[in-house]
Target: Cytochrome bc1 complex cytochrome b subunit
Amino acid sequence: MTTTTPSKVTTPPSRGARAVGATADYLDQRTGVGHAVKFFARKVFPDHWSFFLGEIALYSFVTLLISGVFLTLFFVPSMGETHYEGPWASMNGVEMSEAFASTLRLSFEVRGGLLMRQIHHWAALIFMAAIVTHMMRVFFTGAFRKPREINWLVGFVLLILGLAAGFSGYSLPDDVLSGNGLRITDGVVKAIPIIGSYLSYFVFGGEFPGVDLIPRLFTVHVLLVPGLILALIGLHLVLMVMHKHTQYPGSGRTNSNVVGYPALPVYAGKLLFNLFVVFGVIALMGATMSINPVWNYGPYDPSPVSAGAQPDWYMLFLEGALRLMPGQTEIVLGQYTLSLNVIIPAMVVPGVLFTLLALYPFIEAFATGDKREHHVLDRPRNRPFRTAFGVSLLVAFFILILAGSNDLIATHFHLSINDITWAFRVLLFVGPWFAFWITKRICLGLQRKDRELVLHGHETGRIVRFASGEYIEVHKPLDAHERWLRVQHEAIRPLEIEPAEDSRGVRRKGYRLDSMRQRLSQVFYEDRVEPVTPTELEAAHAAHGHHAEVEAVPEAHAAPELAGAGRGAVGGGQHLVDPQDETAPDTRNR
Model:
């Protein structure tokens, strides 16, 4: 007796499927792209809304490239003189540069030209805003720590290049507003000691405004800066993939794993969706919100300078610094004049602020002496000095931005511009200090609140009276996941160093550097709140044992006997929850 197994009917692949498969096989055999696709498809990325900030910057730059190619086809980067004849009647017969005339033609005669101009400008503003907020997220969460210090510097250089791209871009139309900004730039360049006047002649091709500036700015704007930004974005993404993505703290998340979604298909689908969202929002803004109407300003003329002339928001801090600096602060040394009223606000103040921002990761690493890799982010409250320092920097920039609009504040609120200027001068010194102090106090208060919650639980507002007459408020204990979040951080203490002299009275080599590091470490970490230790948690549960007489606490919330509770590590709050506990989430990549 024989049995026959029914054969499975297979449908032959279609011609299109065979073509796609053959193409993929051809490329894989010659480029090895299959291994790269397999690697990226299996790579896990954590999920959090703040990671979208970097994507906004990337997609805004893509929008800038697309719209910039369109504008390049019609813009004429020339300072040659011409007379405008076109649909904008108020400008007919007016003498202007070819750059300004081509901007008017782009706005009124090229189909879709005005839309593309406004999309390009809005994308530039959003690009800079996204870079700034993305760097704020990286700074406050400590994502710049080892091994990402180089990537922090790459992001910082991208910020500077974004400033250069924006400045060179809005100067191209050669209107009154951009011309006034270029005149300020000329003054700043000339204020550079010794080489200022020579550098100005080189940049402008002669005495301001010269005839070469617009073509040179055009080359910088469409070729040099975008090329550098593209290269650094590529480097930034490569370093991110090499180091793996940081993730926010939580039970199950460690420095040796990543909890998130695979690149394909989940993360790739989200990236594509976010791209369309960002592009759609920018296109909607360009279609409905007017920006930089150069036809209202007119071509550049050095004689009219009106109130209310401000650059884009990301350059306002420099404008504000110049407006706050008192005049008549010049020093003559031999044959050279040092214009401190320009050098200090335009070079010293931005130089100090940007230098502190760029070097902060290395300063913090020097203060802590920590050489380990960090892939789990900090909660800002657990690093009071860093959070307070970042807020003080932001407050300083915000004050300078407001100072750059002191004339608008005066006219809109009917105030004295002199009083406003003096108020901002005082705030520039007092505001960052006060912001540092109050932010640090808030962070320490939040840490104390975390200790209180871990030791005693959440207040329920339920008052119970015992037979003995005692009244207590019933507290709801934290579950394992919330407790882990509030105690997983390390208590970094100021460094301790060896004495200045050894046992024989010989001064130790390198003591001065160690002493400086110790003082810096004390500034960073002298004020701190220790996380709850297992011993403290056991003592708190023992003290609150009579709460069990009121009601039985559910198993999900009652965990006085934890796997790591007997380890007793000082400052070892990270041992209060065992990642392998059944109540803790799986530590494997998801």
